[in-house]
Amino acid sequence: MKKVGVIGLGNMGMGMAKNLIKSGFSVIGFDLDDKRLLKLKENGGSTATSTVQVGEETDAVFVMVMNGEQVKAVVADLAYKNKKRTWIFHVRLSRGSGGGTRTPDLVVNSHSLYQLSYSGMGDLSK
C-alpha cells in the first residue's frame, strides 16, 4: 500500500497527511475548504474533488472529519459509491486520564460495511 487518502484536512488530518508524505506515501486528500486543499498541494500531496474519488484512487482512507454525521456521510459514500475495495480508518481523539491518544475506532473494508453495526450507524445505504 503506497497510495493513501485523507478526508478532512484540519489540524489532525493535515498533520497525518504531512507525516504520510514524509514517510514516502502518495497522499490524495479532500476537504470542503479550498485553502486546505492548496496547503496539501504545497506539502506534496494531491487533491480530489470528492470523497468517492479519494476512495477510488487509494488503498486506504483516513476519515478525519468533525462529527458523527460527517463520518456517516463519508463512510456511506466510500462504502456504496466506491467500486474499489478500500480500507477505511476513522480516527478520533480519545481523552483519558493520561491526556489524549489517537486510536482508530473504525477499521473496515468498504465492501464489508453492509455487515457493520457501529455505534448506531444503522443502514448506511440510505
- Span between N and C termini? 30 Å
How many helices in DSSP terms? 4
Strand order of the largest sheet: 3-2-1-4-5-6
Output mean pLDDT: 76
**CATH homology-level superfamily:** NAD(P)-binding Rossmann-like Domain
Order of helices and strands: EHEHEHEHEE
CATH architecture: 3-Layer(aba) Sandwich
The low-confidence runs, each spanning 5 or more residues with pLDDT under 50, are: 94-126
> What is the count of structural domains?
1
Main CATH class: Alpha Beta
CATH topology: Rossmann fold
- What structural class is derived from the secondary structure elements? alpha/beta
Task: Say what oligomer this is.
Answer: single chain
Q: Quote the beta fraction.
A: 25-35%
Estimate percent helicity.
25-40%
Radius of gyration: 14 Å
Shape: globular
How many beta strands in the DSSP annotation?
6
How would you characterize the largest beta sheet? 6 strands, mixed
Task: Summarize the helices and strands and which ones pair or pack.
Elements: E1 3-7, H1 11-22, E2 26-30, H2 34-42, E3 46-47, H3 51-57, E4 60-63, H4 68-80, E5 87-96, E6 99-109
Parallel strand pairs: 1-2, 1-4, 2-3, 4-5
Antiparallel strand pairs: 5-6
Protein model, in words:
This protein has 126 residues and is α/β, with parallel strands linked by helices. The chain has a single domain (3-115), classed as Rossmann fold (3-Layer(aba) Sandwich), CATH 3.40.50.720. Helix content is 33%, strand content 29%. It has a 6-stranded mixed β-sheet with strand order 3-2-1-4-5-6, with helices on both faces. The longest helix has 13 residues, at 68-80. The N and C termini lie far apart (30 Å).
